[in-house]
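[Meeting: bench + compute handoff]

Bench side (C.D.) handed over the final construct sequence. Compute side (W.E.) agreed to return the predicted structure before the next meeting so the bench team could plan truncations. Sequence as handed over:
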Amino acid sequence: MLLNNALSEYANSDLSVVAFGSVARREVTDGSDLDWTLLVDGISRPEHMDVVHAISGKLKLMNEQGALGMRPPGREGVFGSLASTHNLIHHIGGEEDTNANTTRRILLLLESVPLGKSEAYDRVMRNVLWRYLDEDRSLWFGSGPYKVPHFLFNDVARYWRTMAVDFAYKQRARNNDGFALRNTKLRLSRKLLFMAGMVACFECHLGFSSDKERNSFYGQKQVPALIDRLQQVLSQTPLNILAAGLLRYKQLDAYSKKLLDSYEEFVIMLNEPNSRERLEKMSVDEFEEDPVAKRARTISHQFHDAVRQIFLTSDTDLGKLTIEYGVF
């Protein structure tokens, strides 16, 4: 509500201010980054950069006045500036699909929320999904037993691997600065993001009451209707997407509880100023023996064990889909 009220004046029919990260996940803690972008869906104008500067200035002032308590976007420059919808929609794959473009696009789908007017944001979401779904021949005409959007799923999986590779890149580029915090986030919130994307794709198959209903739906290539279905799923936070998918399987309740409990413990830990600061400032040499790092590893191991028990099993449709699409 605070950010909506502060930034709504900068949005119009062609511009949306979009927040990502912990704001979109509803997991803001003391010291969280405020990752945002000005999404332009229309004619690019020189004055759009003035809007970016105005937003940056307002957020800085709010922090100085103690009204916000969030950090500015990271140093890579992916956020805190303009994002062109042309690149998001037309550069999916290929040399022009940079890491920054992929990051903005996948996070737009899985981990974003508009601040203020959402007209531009809503259009871009639908157009990005249209690219993924309309061009996926195997989804509409394939003879396989499952209806999963391969194009979209592969891009979500690619982004997960990109995050893992970029972790190693940042470790070297930053001379291990912030290693422990980034390591913990990769094991938990970043992994959660991938699982939410995976479950959202699987909902294209699982979200039907019968095989007859599913076959009838895909037999008519109803792209707008499938976009509507996916948007309903993606309008939730990643944690809620995952939780909703797990509710189908009572036999997984113990593992689901373990997963959700460990993730809650992770968020609690990040909200403890001393713990977060310790993870940020800890050297690599201290990582193995430091009590805070040990706690973070314990949480991540519990989370990972639950993930394996839930997704790497052939006892549920969710597990079968994961083995079919998430491994090879």
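W.E. noted at the follow-up: The chain has two domains: 1-117, 136-328. C.D. will use this when planning the next construct.
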